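User: Could you check the structure of this?
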Amino acid sequence: MNESGLYSILGSSRDSKLLCIQRFVRLFAYGASTLILALYLSNLGVTDARIGLFMSMTLWGDVIISFVLTLFADGLGRRRILMLGAVLMSASGLVFTFSGNYWVLVAASIFGVISPSGSEIGPFKAIEESTLSQLSSPDTRSDIFAWYILLGNAGTAFGMITCGWLVEWLQSLDTWTATHAHRFVFGVYAFLGIVKFILAMMLSDKCEPESPTQEYQKVTELDNIEIESLLSSSDDNDDSPHHPAPLQTSKPLPPIPKKKRSILPSISPTSRSILLKLSILFSFDSFASGIATASWITYFFTTNFSLPEGTLGTLFFTTSIIAALSNLVASSISKRIGLLKTMVFTHLPSAIFLALIPLPTTVFPAMTFLVLRACTQNMDQVPRQAFLAAAVLPAERTAVMGVVNVVKTLSQSGGPIVTGWLAGMQKFWIAFLVAGALKAAYDLAMLKMFLGFRSREEVEGERQRNEAAA
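Assistant: Sure, the predicted structure tokens are below.
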């Protein structure tokens, strides 16, 4: 129980639990829409190349929306940004429900929130991770992140299997076509956006960053207490029989002129250096992820092996559940060998299995490689987020994680165009090989650049232990 981090999540705050529930709901919607997105566009008569362009433009729009919203999240209020993102998510679902025009759908995906990969998109992830880091202690943070990611993967899994069998059942009805069934799923997507909006409204003020004014008031109160203590000590040591009038120690200190709070964050030079290195490395991994998004993989299995939606949903439900459970194992491993080694040694096998998926000519071996990939596919997420949270200052986390997510999304956006171009030339298999090679290169470069790196929290913890031992 303790190794799984269950006690940590059960003992966490109400806000932490709400954030995890929000992620489940959101990823449920993403999983459902991802399973049918490429198929829906194909049924509308969109070519493979334009499907790839659609996915890339969706990610480009997400770069702009996520960057702006996460950049100003701490200044404008985290809960407000989360609610705004939920509104955009619901609006996109409604447009996909009632429109079949390619460019209208492109506009809805650019200015709204639609996930072509089944993974995170929009401003939610960076804000939620920053808030979870603030609400949790360093000892429990990796466990909280593990359950946060696990619930997200579980949401994707249940979204995919629910969508797959729902679409297959709707198509069995006399008056329902595949397009009608797909649009019904997008209607459910819009409804889940409303659910997420309600959950964001339930968050408390503890999710917001502490203002500089509050911090100054705390310091001022401590200073007053120390001054009063010193004056009181001086009076006790006075041997004179004459007792002068008491000093006015309660007089408030002159206030520091208030500086207008900026909604723009500041990042220290050390954190900027770390951010630059990580952004370069994450860009390679994300570009590879864009080449082999979940939407493209589902499209590959449908076109190459003619899998129906129900079977397809069951397959990806299995892989998502395996990936979700692997996060708990990753949290336990990271406590033994460290965050960085866990990131690399668990992610590298998944890159190899990804490259092997298109090689078999029958469906069963290809499904086997997909399942084997899922066993370690997401095991790097928990230690990666804990590593990033520990590497920068608490006040920088929202901005840094927002920048990282923007860089990853921007890099990922180039991948679908490449895959669409290759699929149009009947060279789909090359996309998997390139994606696997890039991910393996990312793992090895990550190990080389950050092996031996110590976070601020680790350095501070060692200093405190040394002082206690002395």
